[in-house]
Write a structure and sequence with these properties.
By secondary structure, the protein is mostly helical. The protein has a domain of about 50 residues. About 85% of the residues lie in helices and about 0% in strands. The longest helix is centred in the first third of the chain and has 26 residues. The chain starts with a helix and ends with a helix.
C-alpha cells in the first residue's frame, strides 16, 4: 500500500466519522448546549491572540484537509 493512499483513507474515515458525529449532535438537539459551552470557553480564554490564533488556525487547517479529502470522492 502506498503511503499517500493510506493517509487519504485516514482522511476519508476521519471526515466520515466527524460528519456522522455532527449529524447525531444535530439530530439530538445538542447545538444549543454546545454554543453555550463555547461562549463560556471564550470568556475563559485570554484576550490576546498569542494563544487563540494558533489554535484557530490549526483547527481550520484540519477542517480544510478533511474537506479536501471529502470533496475528492
Amino acid at each position: 500500500m502506498q503511503i499517500d493512499r493510506r493517509f487519504a483513507d485516514y482522511g476519508f474515515t476521519g471526515g466520515f466519522f466527524l460528519l456522522c458525529q455532527l449529524l447525531v449532535l444535530w439530530a439530538l438537539g445538542a447545538w444549543s448546549s454546545i454554543f453555550v459551552d463555547l461562549h463560556m470557553l471564550s470568556a475563559i480564554m485570554p484576550a490576546d491572540s498569542t494563544v487563540t490564533g494558533p489554535l484557530v488556525t490549526g483547527f481550520a487547517g484540519a477542517l480544510a484537509l478533511i474537506a479536501v479529502f471529502l470533496s475528492t470522492c
